[in-house]
Amino acid sequence: MKIKVKKQSVFALGLAAAVFTAFASIVPETLLADGAARYRSTEQEFSTMQIGEDIDYVSREKTEYKMVMSHPGFATSSYAGSCAAIAGSNVLGYFDRYYEELIPNHEAGEYFLSAYLYNYDDKYVREACDELFIDMVGSNVNQGATEKQFKDGMAKYCNSKGRTFSYSSCMSGGSLSLTKVYDAFAIDKPVVLFLRKYNVTQYFEPLETRDHYSYYDSEVSHVMVAFGYTNFFYTLSSGTRWVRMLHVASCNALVDSKGFYVIDRNPAVVDAIAVTIA
Prior knowledge:
- The protein is of the alpha+beta class and 278 residues long.
- The protein has one domain.
- It has four helices and 20 strands.
- The strands form six sheets. Strands 7, 11, 14, 17, 18, 19 and 20 form a seven-stranded antiparallel sheet that branches.
- A hairpin with a 4-residue loop joins strand 17 and strand 18.
- The chain is globular and about 55 Å long.
- The N and C termini lie far apart (48 Å).
């Protein structure tokens, strides 16, 4: 296997002056007295790095499942410390396709032939996200949200719209269960990921026997939402390699709002829940 790796800053420092809302970059998690972590976003995480990698292979097997052709990719909020609410807004956006009252005045998406494509966020999505964040944290808007506050806030918001929010665990023995994750996708349930650190990845196919991956790595905690998976099994000139990825709304406008989370790159799933709104 021939690998080329390089690092570069994702953003020039001049961009810092232009960023003033909570675009869901994350500061390190804060542990509460009961051990719960706050998932708190800030507009300044310029330590995120991009790493490029080429994988040259002899053969490649691909397995893939998408809940929808183009899933939501919302990434903005009016509040710092609101990545949990941004993740929640992506869940609301997904189910707004079925229940239009979840995000009033927002058009969820449209069909192109037989494929459903979700729309980008707009002022109505941001208004819903802001309301959801208040439902999660009350007046403590500068402290981020815990997983419990995420769940309670989602339930409160959905109840206010005449709907119910429910979830089930996608963990087994303290680790992410891909079987449970894949089963959730198959029954129309996105999976919310609570992460101690994370990556947002894109991959390209520049040559017939070469794949290129661009990883945006961060060593800080975050919340993302998954809507499908792509797995590659590579046969290399010497050995084999798996690359397993979830299709995610990154909930971070400082990188790609939609991308892939490479599960084995920096595995740090604190919890994962399959969610539904009815």
